[in-house]
Amino acid sequence: MTTFYYVLIAIAVLALIFGAILGFASIKLKVDADPIVDKIDAILPQSQCGQCGYPGCRPYAEAIANGDQITKCVPGGQETVVKIAELLGVDVPDAEFAEDNSPKVAFINEDMCIGCTKCIQACPVDAIIGTNKSLHTIIPDLCTGCELCVAPCPTDCIVMIKVEKTVDSWDWKINPDLVIPVINTTDGNKKLVVGK
Questions:
Q1: 23, part of any domain
Q2: Are residues 109 and 157 in the same domain?
Q3: Among 70, 127, 143, 191, which residue has the fewest nearby CB atoms (within 10 Å)?
Q4: Total of domains in the chain
């Protein structure tokens, strides 16, 4: 029985020694992440669609930091290219995006859907719901417009439709230097609301 305790003590001591070595190595050999990669990754749309040729936005951000083209992000469009160019301090290249760069979402024609689930497997953001041999539908709020679900559909029932501007999706470009005079109607006090 005492041999058993000696073995347990020896294993515990070895675990502590190896744990200390690993802890020291993790501190001493730590590789700091490139902050430019984090900034580029924050600009990318995080659709993880793979249209850029990389498995996700983070690997593409790393590739951009290493000198790859900044025009490969289709869901981000020209706006993303401009932001990345400003961040890197380079000229904005001419991107070959579609002429109509307005946001789009996928739409499934219910009469043609056969429930094959190929679109569900292709969607990188889980914006399609449905089960095998059952009708599928798109959740527009989750759809990034990457178009990866269109090609696998055997019945061509998925189309991309333009997102119409609403009060919620409108790009309200308000001048930050705007000064708005406000009058409190109950007591007659006047004040100015300044943008910045």
A1: no
A2: yes
A3: 191
A4: 2
User: 130 — phi, psi (to 5°)?
Assistant: 150, 170
**Which residue range is the domain that position 132 belongs to?**
104-162
Dist CA 26 CA 87 (whole Å):
31
- Please give the average per-residue pLDDT across 76-94, as a whole number: 86
Q: Which residue has the higher pLDDT, 174 or 67?
A: 67
Whole-angstrom distance, CA of residue 125 vs CA of residue 147? 12
What burial letters (b/e) apply to 27-37, b meaning 16+ CB within 10 Å?
A: eeeeeeeeeeb
User: Given a cut of 60, is residue 99 above it in pLDDT?
Assistant: no
146 assigned to a ligand binding site = yes
The torsion of the CA quartet 57, 60, 62, 66, rounded to 10 degrees, works out to -160
Helix (H) or strand (E) holding 160: strand 158-162
The answer to the question of residue 95 being in a domain is: no
Asked if the structure places residue 185 within a domain, the reply is: no
Residue 116 labeled ligand binder: yes
Q: Can you tell me the distance from the alpha carbon of 196 to that of 178, in angstroms, rounded to the nearest whole number?
A: 8
Q: What is the pTM of this model?
A: 0.51
- Whether residue 22 has pLDDT greater than 90: yes
- What CATH number does residue 134 fall under? 3.30.70.20
